[in-house]
Amino acid sequence: MVRNPERRAALLDAAIAALAEEGARGLTFRAVDTRAGVPAGTASNYFADRDDLLAQTSVRTYERFMPGQAEWDDVLVGPRDRAKLVEVMRATITRMVSDPEVYLATLELQLEATRRPDLRRDLTARVRADLDANIAFHEESRMPGGRDTVLILYLALNWMVTEHLTLPGVLAPEGDLDTLVARVVEGVVLDAPSSDGDGTG
């Protein structure tokens, strides 16, 4: 396989766009080459087959989803109370909806995983590891709530983004995303005393 990290990333970004706009059936080597603006046959030099393309595309979606260091650092600034958790969740949702094709491509990959055991195995391991990391970070940073809080927010906010990007009219009468995030967090987390992160809160 050819090794050119920039070209590989461009091809995977093209694959993400194809998945988001056309679904898994639209993800072909030819479609990736066309979207990436490269000569026909280029994608086949980087990916062994369609399964390999799907697997590497799923990894690329995570790379594009990951928050920057500034967002991580901001979690540790100020009191760790319910208001802070609302702020953190709003930043997370904003990041997710600001690049909608990545989220939509992820949904397509999950659907495709129901038909491809290897893809299901890889996605399950990656998503589970990410969830475990979020739980650990939440607890270590002394944010309000615990493991169940993270699980409930994970389920509620992921579905909120799904509805917003696929059927926006469903939740529109309930308010904008910032309002909905606050309502979810405030419904899950009691307004308990904050922690300043040094073990004295």
Protein described:
This protein is 72% helix and 0% strand. It has 11 helices and no strands. It has helices at 5-22, 29-36, 42-46, 50-65, 69-75, 82-98, 100-113, 117-140, 147-166, 168-171, 177-188. Helix 1 (5-22) crosses helix 2. The model has no long low-confidence stretch (mean pLDDT 92).
Task: Set down the secondary structure blueprint.
Elements: H1 5-22, H2 29-36, H3 42-46, H4 50-65, H5 69-75, H6 82-98, H7 100-113, H8 117-140, H9 147-166, H10 168-171, H11 177-188
Helix pairs in contact: 1-2, 1-4, 1-7, 4-7, 4-8, 6-9, 6-11, 7-8, 7-9, 8-9, 9-11
Low-confidence stretches: none
Number of E-state strands? 0
Please indicate the percent range of residues in DSSP E strands (runs of 2 or more). under 5%
CATH C-level label of the largest domain: Mainly Alpha
Quickly describe the structure.
It contains 11 helices and no strands. It is mainly alpha-helical and about 200 residues long.
Short descriptors:
mainly alpha; 11 helices; single chain; 72% helix; Arc Repressor Mutant, subunit A; 201 residues; Tetracycline Repressor, domain 2
